[in-house]
Amino acid sequence: MLRVDGKNIGFAREGIRILSDVNFSVKSGQILWIKGDNGTGKTTLLRIIAGVLKTFSGSISFYSQGDARNNEPEAIWKEEAKQQDKTLTTETIKKEKNLCGHHLTIEDRSVRQAGYEHCLHKTANNQNLDDAYNKLETASVVGSTLCNKHKHEEKKETKKLMINTSIGEDFTQKIQPHSEITYIGEKLACDEEHTVLENLYFWAKLRNCTHLLQATLEFFDLAKISNIEIRKLSSGWKKKVSLSKLLLFNSKIWILDEPFIHLDKRSIKLFTELFDLRLARNGIIFLVHHDELDIDDDKITRLELG
Fold it and tell me: Which residues form the ABC transporter domain (predicted)?
């Protein structure tokens, strides 16, 4: 079980106070739904939680109760900020601890590269959502073997690797994630001069999971646009490509800034179902979203800013 606490979080830019004394606590299986008017610091708070913004006051603490004695939460990572000479600065504390069996690393580079996360358009081979998600959440031994076999050819034969990677195998070996946090900003995080396939391949290489590329293409119905440059796509397709990163990672914590923008109703519905599945697997979701959510109210913790 995980828990994330924010205490007395504050942030100022050019002398203007954006956030002041913000407090929250969210645990596994819950969404922290951050709401507020424009300019109240919703995106700023997400960036602080993700570790992208370092100059803030207060603290963000991550806890795991899996191995803690007497059911007391064990601090696995904490980021604190303190004020010196009237300037907000950051003091980061990193500990060699495990988060649900995986090493936790919070770095600007890894968070930014994780970039966007996920959206859902179509389940592969008409499978139900849960089966499809399970297949995408785990990696097959066959797929891993195939990936290793073609490792020396990857730079020259990316598309060939994609074609030869199958979604139809039995998945048994868990993906080892690079980071337990995946941050999805509101802005597009794609190289618009490259194709859909080239963008997906680049992201997959960052997390050493190229064996899941074909599955991701089919899951989001992206195969038919895989050779099209991002700049030529509609806003909706661009969003789906950006959000497809989630299925290449296995993060426990999702940080999402307006993920439903430009998505059609069908995609939003499936995406919401995927939220439920992530929560059922003891994940935590931090969400900025303006409209209503079709999710059980007991899974939602609301935080109003402003």
Answer: 4-305
Q: Mark which of 224, 250, 276 sits at the end of a domain.
A: 250
**What's the predicted TM-score (pTM) here?**
0.67
pLDDT single digits (tens) 85-106: 333 333 332 332 333 333 333 3
Query: In the structure encoding, which two tokens stand for residue 150, read together?
Result: 């073609």
Contact 157, 125 (CB under 8 A): no
Domain-located, residue 48: yes
Tell me, yes or no, whether 203 and 237 share the same domain: yes
Residue 65 CB-density burial (10 A; 0-12 exposed, 13-18 middle, 19+ buried) = middle
Alpha carbon separation from 255 to 31, 67, 172, 184, 205 (Å, rounded): 10, 25, 27, 6, 21
The secondary structure of 72-86 as a DSSP string is --EEEEEEEEEEETT
Whether residue 257 lies inside any domain: the answer is: yes
Instruction: List, for residues 136-171, the tens digit of each pLDDT value.
Output: 444 333 333 333 333 334 333 333 333 332 222 222
State which amino acid sits at residue 162: M
Domains held by the chain: number: 2
- Residues whose CB is less than 8 angstroms from the CB of residue 265 and which lie 6 or more positions away in sequence, other chains included: none
Query: 83 forms bridges with which residues in the sheet?
Result: 88
212 and 234 share one domain:
yes
Domain assignment of residue 113, yes or no:
no
Residues spanned by the domain of 213: 191-250
Tokens 């895989």 identify what position?
226
pLDDT of residue 286: 97
Residues 306, 303: Cα–Cα separation, whole Å: 10
Q: Edge to edge, what strands does the sheet with 57-64 contain?
A: 16-27, 2-13, 57-64, 74-84, 87-93
pLDDT of residue 15: 87
User: 260: domain CATH number?
Assistant: 3.40.50.300
Is position 151 within any domain? no
What per-residue confidence (pLDDT) applies to 77?
Answer: 55
Residues 243 and 256 in one domain: no
